[in-house]
What we know:
about 675 residues; mainly alpha; CD2-Gal4; two-stranded antiparallel sheet; two-stranded antiparallel ribbon; 22 helices; Zn(2)-C6 fungal-type domain-containing protein; zinc ion binding; Fun_TF; DNA-binding transcription factor activity, RNA polymerase II-specific; nucleus
Amino acid sequence: MTPTYFAPPPQPGHMHLVAPLPRPTNVPPQRKRPKYTRSKTGCLTCRAKKIKCDETKPSCLRCTHGQRECTWPEGLPARKKAPPKKQSVPIDNRPSTAESSGVSESSTPPTRNNTPPKPENGAMELSLPPPASTRRHSEPYLTLPPAADTHRRQSIPSLQATTHGYPAHSLQSHALPVIPEMTSSYPSQRYNSAYSSTPLHAHSPGHHSVDSGHIPSRSSSSNNTIRRVEHGPHHAPQWVHHNSHLIHPVDPIEPYFQTVQERHLIRHYCDTSLNIIMAVPFENPVAAANVSLVFNRPLRSDPATEALRLALLGVAAVHQSFQIGRGGSSPEGSVSMMNLAQAYRLESTRWLTAACSTADGVQSDAALSASITIALIDIFTGGHRWHKNLNVAKGLVKSRGGPSAMLARRVACRPGTVTGTSRAKLLLEILAIYDMFGSLATGREPTILGNGSVDWWSVSLLHDDTVAKSHVENVFGMSRTLVPLLAQVVASVARALSGRAHVVELPDSVTSAADPSSECTLLYNDLDNWAPPAEDIPARVRTGNMIYVNAAKIVLLRDVGQVSPDDHIVQRCVETILTLCLRCAENKLSVDLNWPVIIAASHAFGESRRQVLDLFEAFRYVRGADTMVGCYEIDTSEQIVLEVWKRLDQNHPGADWRSTMRDLNLDVLIL
Length: 671
């Protein structure tokens, strides 16, 4: 066999051969070898065949493969290991020549055990980060931004991650599969239109998780590469056997959530937010918008982003506190987790204050989203201490020119993501509804959807959905066109309670409304005549519309019309609300129905009260595996209702939910 060498490729542009340079005369002569000697210490058979022997006793690999008798000379000393080299040599990525028949022993290392095995069809070289177009899956993906603190982990290159879409709507599993460890537990059926802007679920192009141990980190003198290794049965055991001391699990979210506790909490948020935030658990634009903002900036590089990151951890902590407390296994653990949630809220507020002191922070969606997420912490903890934070959110909107100016920018977003104008619209919708329910509890007029400021809500309906899609139906379980009418009811009741009855804008055919009762009558008729849009809507949205229309009628009749609690119209609305809410609870779709139940239950008598208690317990129902839908706001709602019942039974003059909340100092934000 003739020796095989890897010569350098010919240089382009040369049209003739160049004679080799003469050998320098001052080079010391090299030691001459016997002409065909390949191994001085190998077996006698390989010496006779003039091939290299690997010196394996009692039978070398050459003789074994050739089915020859392997004979050894007597008294042959064991082969000494080659002395270690003083200088480090870059890793040789060329094919191994250990099997070649023309390379001398001194030019071939004695073993290749520390070199990762290469796939037979050649290694796939991935640049850092890998190209975003490398996709092998049928579902939508989004890349993971490069890690911010690369100085912490020099041996781990920045990876590009992908994330699964949302799971199909089933009563058994509604988790958001965006975490590396969670892939095996999610159903394979998924919705086609799902948000992929949560870059937590990292995969290699071969659909193997980054932390599965099959993508090692390597360094080279020229560049850093990641090699995808074939995962056949003959490769993986060898890989783990020879390189187990080099393999370290890589968590793609570690640069953004550095501690184990933080990574556990953010996974809990992404796992449960679909169940505890979305009234229609079809898709989760809230989590998609928030997580994409967190991964958009390096850790602690932007105050607004850091405020949002800490607020998301606070939401997860308070929900875990509720779960642990309801389980009863560890009351101390529940208290500890609640303290952690309050610590996250406090720290998030500090970062938000720092963000609001800069021009960039005021204009940032991350700052507005952080304020809204802090409000969600307040809701889940029972609805307390929400005023100051919600005023910060309103101030941020005002600083950006108001809702109309924010939506007029019309920043396009990629399909399947919640960015640009679509994200701004989502945040404005959430803030408007938070403001409306907060105003209902306090007896104040809404400011985001108050009279004269609802044009942006109606005009935005004309926007192209590809630029700014509305998410009111899925997030809150009611039609978008119903929200302004509910805001008018809240404003009218606030004016009536304060003795400042204002006249609403009426059609030309209507003369005027000079007193609160006339305004109440007009709004009551509007509620009776209101009809949802013609397009097909989910059953939960249709049911939610009926629930909130009847709740608004009760508020008008009781707070403005001053009718008695046992009025037949009031009781008919109460029966409708409780029946529909129970239907939603049976289908595990009870998110954002606390206020209708409070309003209806405050007028319940007899057997209806037992139905209300069952309803509250159903609101805490475990929808999936160890996942409770509700949180502490359900306990606050039940506390208000029980106190109202006590006052009704005692003929107390303030036997209504509004007086009860005022007397108990329960100025709470509940949905």
